Amino acid sequence: MAIESDVLVIGGGLAGASAAIEAARGGASARLVTHKENTLRNASGLIDVLGYHGSDEPIVEPFEAIPDLPDHHPYRKVGVDAVRESLALFDEITEGLYEGGHTETNALSPTYGGRVKPTSRYPKSAAAGLASRAEDTLLVGFETVTTFDAPLSAERLDSSVPFEVRGVTIPFPGEFRADARITRLARALDADELLDRENRTGTREALAERVSEHLGDAKRIGFPAILGDEEHREVRETLEDELGVPVFEVPMGPPSLPGMRLEDRLYEALETEGVRVESGNPVVGYTADEGRITAVSVDRGRREIPYHADQFVLATGGLVGKGIDSTREGVFEPVFDCHVPQPEERYEWFHDEAFDDQPYARFGVAVDDDLRPLDPEGDPEFSNLRAAGAVLGGYDMAREKSASGVSLSTGQVAGRNANEDLQ
Amino acid sequence: MADPVDVLVVGGGSTGCGIARDLAMRGLSVTLVEQGNLTHGTTGRMHGLLHSGGRYAVSDQASARECIEENRVLRDIAGHCVETTGGLFVQLEDDPDEYFEQKLEGCRECDIPAEVLTAEEAREREPYLTREVKRAIAVPDGAVDPFRLCVANAADAVEHGARVETHAPVTDVLVEGGEVIGVEVEHESGPGKRVHTKPGTTEEIRADHVINATGAWAGRVGEMAGVDVEVRPSKGVMMIMNVRQVDTVVNRCRPKGDADIVVPHETTAILGTTDVEVEDPEDYPEERWEVDLMIETLSQLVPILSEARTIRSFWGVRPLYEPPGTGTTDPTDITRDFFLLDHEDRDSLPGMTSIVGGKFTTYRLMAEKISDHVCEKLGVSAACRTAEEPLPGSEDFSVLREYMDEFGLRSPIGRRSVQRLGSRADEVLKTAEPNPVVCDCEAVTRAEIRDAIEGAGSDLNAVRIRTRASMGNCQGGFCCHRMASELHPEYDEETVSAAWDELVQERWKGERHALWGEGLSQAALNYQLHGTTMSLDREPAVADFAAFDSGTETATDGGKSDGD
Ligand SMILES: Cc1cc2nc3c(=O)[nH]c(=O)nc-3n(C[C@H](O)[C@H](O)[C@H](O)COP(=O)(O)OP(=O)(O)OC[C@H]3O[C@@H](n4cnc5c(N)ncnc54)[C@H](O)[C@@H]3O)c2cc1C
Ligand SMILES: Cc1cc2nc3c(=O)[nH]c(=O)nc-3n(C[C@H](O)[C@H](O)[C@H](O)COP(=O)(O)OP(=O)(O)OC[C@H]3O[C@@H](n4cnc5c(N)ncnc54)[C@H](O)[C@@H]3O)c2cc1C
Predict the structure, then answer these.
(1) Beta-bridge partner residues of B212
(2) Closest CA to B484 of A180, A252, A112, A254
(3) Domains of chain A with CATH codes
């Protein structure tokens, strides 16, 4: 039987999920096909909208700054209102899991590198730790979790924030191998594993006990983001009850538990909206007729199966997950071979300082105001293909701190426009 | 001012460190000064080939003979730095028969064991060789870790009483009464081991004899003393692949040419190289054509290289020397032999000798020759012992296997640590504290990092070369900050941050040259990790913290109102 839907979304990260949810809410039959894990498990779990433009002074009001961005920036394609609406959708989907929706002002979050960064939505588990909340802080790290050094992060933060930050390193309670994964430690907290049969102390209580002697005058305590996986709320609650002050997680790199929690929430929402989700197989090609895509082919191991749809959304991510790929000869978009603007000379793809304004960071497809990818002449590649998220070019999400905001807003607009265009 | 020493060695590459060890073992008082960290120069930027001599068997037989002799010595005294991979000279269908015969003949003349293999036999040893192979010559080439070997020499020199000072460039050679009497060094700031003096100060070090072992920089140090040393620096590129496509050294068997060798190194394979004369050993163009040429030419020999993932490229500068008046135009024709320049004989300037040219493989022999020379001048009769005395880490290799089980690490990690550390494994890995992995790609544990910090101070690039941490596939994306953390709190936040930034920048320097396919994808991920998640890309200039969102009350009510 032929596979048919109104809107077919390719890629299941923030952008693809937003597009599919929006299309489904508009009444379309929506299907989402995604290959590998999306970048959320690499990401910190923070939702950045716009943190910097030009200077090193972080932006307080991101919506006021958006109109100053250059014309080709994805935010300028969708407009400020669309960005607002997409955050409202995000808030609705992540209710209880995320904070920050009460204001349009950016917050400052501590990073595990010991810097602060402007962001718009933060996991509830990170809320008590905002650096824009002036309260003395204790950071706690674990001997074997080499990726978060609490004393160093604390010293770096302390030199830049208007409150005191101290850090200590303690052994994680229980018997673990020196190279136990972060997820293993999170599970021990989830299950509140017993340390010792006799006095029946659980991991959470033992942890609180170890921390309490370091508390001092601190008004809050931060841990690396490993405080439980499924049961993170209960884990935090127990620790707070035992310690008597708010407890928070410092957002971390991969594997990111806050990122995975968000991913779970998004996939629940997709299910609620009736989107058919299929993961594990890549889209490898397409057929088109008179400038319209008629179907894409999905590689199911032995066979390539055509998936038909009326409208298509390309949300395959950027260079990290190869939604944009390259060879020594050039940069390309692998599914539809949409045009990717780039300097012809490979040695002009980069600058010599790691954190310079890197040309490669802006690689991606160029789009019109309807988010349709454009060919080298500036005409839409296909009339029924839209692109969203990191596959878009013309912005540097790391430098601007705009990654998730762009994905959410362009995703939602692509889904909505696809829906409106249904024939 | 410190007491005068017998010998002051300038240059912390393989040559200088080899000399310092040799002289210190003979009982002389020695100070070595190096402008960067150890291996800062060409030694840290070479191909990793322990020459059998095969490459020089036709064109430069004197060098070839030295190579095979030293090759045997190093297997003995530096077992933990050498991998006895063996090497092949591979003739393809269109390569000249005549040269193949000359190569074979040359190897035999130089006493280099050489065995002819049929195409089938060659492909059996190296399955990824092209089907175009006609035949091959097997020789005892090896792979050598220049960092470990150089550092082991320095460590042993210190063990024998030498002073080794890094981040201490010589800014002047002191001449008094027509004689070199010492040098002036500047102790630089920046991360690194500076045990003896404060950064920002200068020091005069007096010595009975000064040895200029600055390789490609030898001309500059010569100039400071007012003598001409005609080094002709020549650059070459090397490209690191993500896996070992070959397990033996694979050479193309044809007359000289660029891009004709692949050397397996640890978990990687390294392609090389080019040979282009440059003006300045510190500032020369790193060019795209060189990178592209490696892949295009060497994939004729090993076709999967054209599809393989490149992780970075780097360049080194050969310290080639030719006696005045030789006038060779093509740098590939300049001899690979070394020269000892006695400035007393040559320039009527007593008190200083320069050593130039040569190869890494022959560093020990070079050190022996110049040490003999200097000892004779100073009236010291002690004999050289470096050909017999194993280097630290290579004393007793038989116990390796036991170590592997003993440390209870995941076995590949334990194995790799022990391979790197050799007989020092016990001393380094036996810690009371847990010993987690800091660098996943190269399986480097905390104990190794801390041991390296003890030797290298706060210079993370020096820690890197001692341990291989951050040198694998991720190029530091996941571990630069972890390495930096190990410096703290021994070093203060400012020093740690500077060292961290320096490491990140150094990693990027090589990654730039592998910026396509997987390499670009990895670079983008690293940029996201460093820029987006950690916000390392800039120091935020926050005017008013209170202007930002400080959360709501419910957000910090103890999490009690969390939905889920
Ligand atoms: C290390 C890191 C840290 C980050 N930190 C933050 C942060 O602190 N704050 C913030 O706001 N954002 C952060 N982000 C950004 C954010 O998580 C997303 O990466 C970004 O918003 C892009 O999302 P996306 O949906 O466009 O793409 P992705 O999340 O990359 O999703 C693309 C999906 O498409 C799939 N796909 C690709 N090709 C095909 C194909 N041919 N067929 C089918 N499926 C395909 C992929 O497998 C993937 O699942 C971070 C990202 C990274 C990598
Ligand atoms: C591309 C390439 C590939 C190579 N591959 C191989 C190979 O596979 N096998 C092999 O055997 N050989 C190889 N070589 C050759 C080998 O690397 C060198 O011959 C050897 O490393 C030179 O060591 P050195 O100690 O003489 O010089 P260097 O390592 O350059 O040491 C000189 C040191 O002096 C320091 N210095 C300079 N000026 C001052 C100053 N004013 N004050 C203080 N210090 C100063 C420098 O910082 C430097 O560290 C290769 C060379 C190149 C360029």
Answers:
(1) B10, B354
(2) A112
(3) 3-97+260-420 (3.50.50.60), 112-250 (3.40.50)
**Residues 6 or more apart in contact with residue B503 via CB below 8 angstroms:** B460, B461, B464, B470, B476, B480, B483, B484
CA-based nearest distance B417→chain A, Å? 15
CATH class of B84-143+235-317: alpha beta
Contact with chain A for residue B520, Cβ under 8 A:
yes
B561, closest residue in chain A (CA to CA): A96
Q: Is B346 on the interface with A (CB under 8 A)?
A: no
Chain B nearest C-alpha distance from A222 (Å): 13
**Low-confidence spans in chain B with pLDDT less than 50:** 190-194, 196, 397-409, 555-564
| pLDDT for res A176 | 87
- Ligand 1 centroid vs B141 CA: distance in angstroms? 46
pLDDT tens digits along B510-530? 999 999 999 999 999 999 999
The DSSP letter of residue B243 is S
Tens digit of each residue's pLDDT (9 = 90 or more) over B132-188 = 999 999 999 999 999 889 988 998 999 999 999 988 999 999 999 999 999 999 987
Of A113, A155, A319, the CB nearest to B534: A113
Considering only the beta carbons, identify the residue of B512, B517, B536 that sits closest to A350: B512
For residue B132, CA distances in Å to A122, A306, B302, B423 come to 59, 41, 10, 43
Count of CB pairs separated by less than 8 Å, A with B? 250
Q: Does A247 touch chain B (CB under 8 A)?
A: yes
Q: How many other C-beta atoms lie within 10 A of the C-beta of residue B552?
A: 15
ipTM of the complex: 0.97
- As a CATH number, domain B5-42+147-230+336-378 is 3.50.50.60
Atom of ligand 2 nearest to the CA of B316: 53
Q: What letter does residue B196 receive in the DSSP assignment? A: S
Per residue in B181-215, pLDDT (tens digit) is 999 999 875 444 445 456 778 999 999 999 999 99
